[in-house]
Amino acid sequence: MTGFDTYFISPSGVMDALNNLEEGVRLLDGNTPGYLWLDYYRPTQENLELLAEHFKIHYLSLEDCLDEEQIPKINEFENYVQVLFNKFRSTEEKAVIEEINLFMGSNFLISVVKNNGQPDTQGKTYRELMRDELRKAKLGPMFALQVFLDYLVDSKFDVIEAVGDKLAALEDIMTDNHQNFDQTALQKVRQSLMDFRKSLFHEREILVKIARNDIDLIADSAIPHFNDIYDHITKYFELTEIYREMVTSLIQTNLAMINNDIAVAANDTNLSVKRLTVITTVFMPLTLLAGILGMSEWTMMTGQRNWKLAYPAFLVLMLLIALVNYLLIKRSDRKK
Predict the structure, then answer these.
(1) 74, 203 in Cβ contact below 8 A?
(2) Domains with residue ranges and CATH for the chain
């Protein structure tokens, strides 16, 4: 589903849905008090061209509405201001960032989203948002722009906090049983936080530019409202930085635990090798004696009549040699 809805917002706080864009343009041309709001969803090149025709929107701005993975920015043109902002949304697998283009002029506000206009995680469409905030929105397009940005920034908190909760859960798993720790899940959290930081950094720069009163179309009376948004986005940016540091700490802790497991396994292997070495050292001379002085050879040396005494004596001698070897090994270990 693609298209756009047209609304006319009057200074008295009434938001009327219009049948088509031409009706709204006639109201503006007739100097009717109020301004026009166009709510675009899943825009196409054809219906975006209407913006260039009626509102003189630059073709580069229209291209931004169709291009993917644009960074947040603010551009000021002769008759309008373009603000590209991001909206965060949570899914079961990862966090998703959606782009929203806002065009504000002296008598119009245009919002362009790439989704189908369905409610977000808070269950509110942009039409419902504007109706709920008509007390501000009726004051003019710059205040309607502030309503949009304030909502987009505030909605980021739930998504960032959800990532933080997932990070805390991964930390508990690592602490309780790090063998079951999912390194892939941690890397996904890390990637989401990097995307958040990139978005919040540029969005904060947008609000800094507005707060400095660098945008001529935004009056001084609206600046305090944008300053409040700046305070919120700065807090979320710092929260993202804290979570990124936690990810780094968890990665280092996990590597330390893995190295510790490897060290324990290596120690166990060394003990096993040591035991085998002791056994080999003890029995090696015995094997040599058994090979040289085999039963037949020993019988020939001692005589057939003496075998009842010779073989027990030979066994005792082998036991004494084994005991001496073992004691020498233990003494050498104690010295080390």
Answers:
(1) no
(2) 3-258 (3.30.460.20), 266-335 (no CATH)
